[in-house]
Specification:
alpha+beta, 22% helix, globular
């Protein structure tokens, strides 16, 4: 028999109880809802890898949600790793099939997920959230801007898998890097993961519905304006580290209709950036409440 205080026992950290999958399904899987299935696994390498594999074989329907209590090989943008202690955060992926939306507009889906996650977490955790373009979730810890989460989208099957990782209850000595943060360290009024997960998925369902109803038009659906309002990157001087080792410095002045970050450079030119790593150099911050 496993001792109750064994490190791998699922009840070994009572401040981090396991998710109640029955309650989550009861609250989220309604006949008229976007979400069609919800699975919670104890541990996996990457929920994105798993769900994308299911989508490619036709084993996942639109609205499938895969949640892990622990991710051992979570992936962020630019193939960075994302790790955290078991049950210390939200680690999930969803599968969406916006098949009737022009494919050139699908690039808005990860940005949509960022708006939805920031909005849902701000309301349920009581923490001011902001977005770093394209898909980082930021919080303030002792007045300092910290990354508390990230989003990764990838095409799979007939649709797109969107993964979300959020540090919820990580303590200072558990952070993977000095620039990282968590909802708890940002003063969250609630770190109950079931409450946070429901809020995020309901917000995502709402924003996805608005976007689809507008035929994927980010301006008409209000998504473009919402992203800009909550984007901490705008109105700041930034350095864009571009593919191929190039970089570009300028003031971030807009999010265009394709979801690109528009930089105003020294020469007065406005340069849209569609991919790259953004470094905030100085300037104001935004917030989603």
């Amino acid at each position: 028999m496993t001792p109750p205080d064994a490190p791998h026992n699922r009840w070994s950290d009572l401040d981090r109880p396991p998710l109640n999958v029955t309650a989550l399904r009861r609250g989220l899987l309604r006949p008229d809802a976007l979400w069609t299935s919800l699975e919670v696994v104890e541990s996996t390498g990457s929920t994105n890898t798993d769900l994308a594999g299911q989508a490619r074989t036709g084993a996942a329907d639109e609205g499938a949600v895969l949640v892990a209590e622990e991710q051992t090989a979570g992936r962020g943008r630019l193939e960075r790793t994302w790790t955290a202690p078991p049950r210390s955060g939200l680690f999930l992926s969803v599968y969406l099939e916006p098949g009737d939306i022009p494919v050139e507009r699908w690039g808005w889906v990860p940005l949509l997920a960022g708006v939805a996650a920031a909005t849902g977490l701000a309301k349920s955790a009581g923490v001011d959230m902001s977005l770093k373009w394209p898909n980082d979730l930021l919080v303030a810890v002792e007045g300092e801007e910290r990354k508390a989460g990230g989003i990764l989208g990838e095409f799979a099957g007939r649709g797109i898998v969107v993964g979300l990782g959020v540090n919820v209850s990580l303590r200072a000595d558990e952070l993977p890097a000095p620039t990282a943060g968590s909802l708890a360290l940002a003063g969250a009024v609630s770190t109950d993961r079931e409450t946070l997960l429901r809020a995020v998925l309901r917000s995502l369902e709402d924003w996805y519905g608005r976007w689809r109803a507008a035929d994927g038009d980010a301006a008409v659906s209000g998504l473009q304006a919402a992203y800009a309002a909550g984007c901490a990157t705008l109105d700041r001087t930034v350095r864009a580290e571009l593919p191929g080792g190039k970089s570009l410095v300028g003031e971030a002045v807009a999010i265009d209709g394709d979801g690109r970050l528009v930089l105003s450079t020294e020469g007065g030119l406005q340069q849209p950036v569609s991919a790259g790593d953004i470094v905030h150099l100085r300037g104001a911050t935004g917030g989603l409440t």
